[in-house]
Predict the structure.
Amino acid sequence: MAWELGANMGHIDRMLITARAMRDLGHDVTFALKDLARAHGRVVRDGFPVLQSPIWLPRMANPPRLVNFSSVLAAGGWLDGAGLAGLLCAWRNLFDLVRPDLLVCDHAPTALLAMRGRRVPVAAIGNCFELPPHRDFFPVMNYWDVVDRAACERSDALVLAPVNQALELTGDAPLPRLTALFEGVRCLAATLPEFAHYPDYDERITMVGPSYVGDSGVVPNWPAGEGRRVFVYLSPEHADFDALMTALRSPGIVALVHAKGLSAEAVRRLSGPALRFEPSPVQMDPAVAGADLVISHASIGTVSAAALAGCPQLVLPNHMEQYMVARRIVDAGVGLAVPPGSKGSDYSALLDALLNRPAHAAAARALAQRHAGVTPGATAQRIASELEALLA
């Protein structure tokens, strides 16, 4: 199981749930992880061997404007033919060491490319940002704006040229088009269809349900007091963090906040009688089950947990991947979004709209009812069945 791009715990958690299910079926699982600093408490403690993924370290200066998934590949080194060839060789050395019967990639496109032509079955698991529709070209990310087909084709072509240079250096056949990266790969999107990042998926990608760890962390310890409960999972670096905390100190609101890295001084300054900061990660499932509103950056795990609990949401996305999910939340009627880069929003009004008016709460309950019985555990079992079929 390989992880190459992206950050935070979502990738490890999704892989770990699947790995446990595969181990229960009698298979040996080895992890190649981007971030080993996060490995021991989750993966190693669970008894799985861990290796370091080959990753791209240089940062692009003045990167070209790419409008689709090609921009993700470019950030992973795919604009540098010789550099990409080095990554491909490193991945293949890992494959030679482990000799896998199956490769499972979680946002690991270079591992996908390195295994191409090796006659080993390959699956790609991820959210829908990491598994975009892949027909003749990758579609535009900001699908709500009008962008012509030529812009997407130009983005793909700009990345395809150095990719084929790398494949020539490693003695491999060229890719006929950039989207051919996913040809022959079993693509399993771990998400609810309402939150698929793009609106135009087809049978090339199978939606298998949400995958996140809902029982890891401390038990939620809500502040004392009467009022509507708001669970907050945000970075304290967001420009409006203090303004939102001020709004959450309003009468009638009881708030539990996990903001990783928040200083002790800020905790003293921002806390209130019914506003409590929890320094440790909080168990997601009981937190959202006890909440009337969930506030996050629109990471797919948090969004999915809140949705299955029938909870309306306020999301403050930081980047395009999160903003795509935020748009889907608004489209589904289950929440409101503050666009990336915005500052000075009226958070009291947003909280009032979500806590005291029935429309969003009703839509959130309806969504949860449509997916009654859906759990990350069920998703893991479904993914394991798909992977078993590939091994057979």
Remarks:
- The chain has 14 helices and 13 strands.
- The first strand starts at residue 2 and ends at 3.
- The two ends are 18 Å apart (CA to CA).
